Amino acid sequence: MTVKTVSMSLLKDPRHLLSLGFGSGLAPKAPGTFGTLVAIPLYLLMAIYLSDLFYIITLIVAFLVGIYLCQQTTNALGVDDHPAIVWDEFVGYFITMLFVPLSVTTVVLGFVFFRIFDILKPWPISVIDSRIKGGLGVMLDDVLAGLFALAAMHISLWLFY
């Protein structure tokens, strides 16, 4: 099943609306990149209005809810980890930006680092991606990509700021 075959009617269901990134996952090319772009305004709201504690709580809730959402959409599409499912990119980007000072530079750098790790899937991300299926599998590889990108962000901040 390709991204083009995902029915727009799925967006009427709030579970699929969220897992498909408010429709951003339906982009014909690079749906993960478009999903991450849509995550940025949500991140900005979180960074501006939430304390570190509530940011972490929101991140954990988004991860746990994401397992459910991604499983529901996986079931509806009949395809494990369909490219249109991008809620995992949201959570991965939120992880990338954990404890990062807010600036245009850090938002862009976080986007670049996260997309690199999500696309290249270095070990152990590739192992998780290939072995763990369902909603948990959809979420876990992006959580790991987010953790790798988070490390890259903090190393960069330490070196250059």
Summarize the structure.
The chain has 161 residues and is mainly α.
Report on the architecture of this protein.
With 161 residues, this protein is an all-alpha fold. It has one domain (3-160). The protein is built from seven helices and no strands. It has helices spanning 14-19, 31-49, 52-77, 87-96, 104-120, 125-131, 134-160. Helix 2 (31-49) packs across helix 4, helix 4 runs parallel beside helix 7 (134-160) and helix 6 (125-131) packs antiparallel against helix 7 (134-160). The longest helix is centred in the C-terminal third of the chain and has 27 residues, at 134-160. 39% of the residues are buried.
List the helices and strands and how they pair.
Layout: H1 14-19, H2 31-49, H3 52-77, H4 87-96, H5 104-120, H6 125-131, H7 134-160
Helix pairs in contact: 2-4, 3-4, 3-7, 4-5, 4-7, 5-7, 6-7
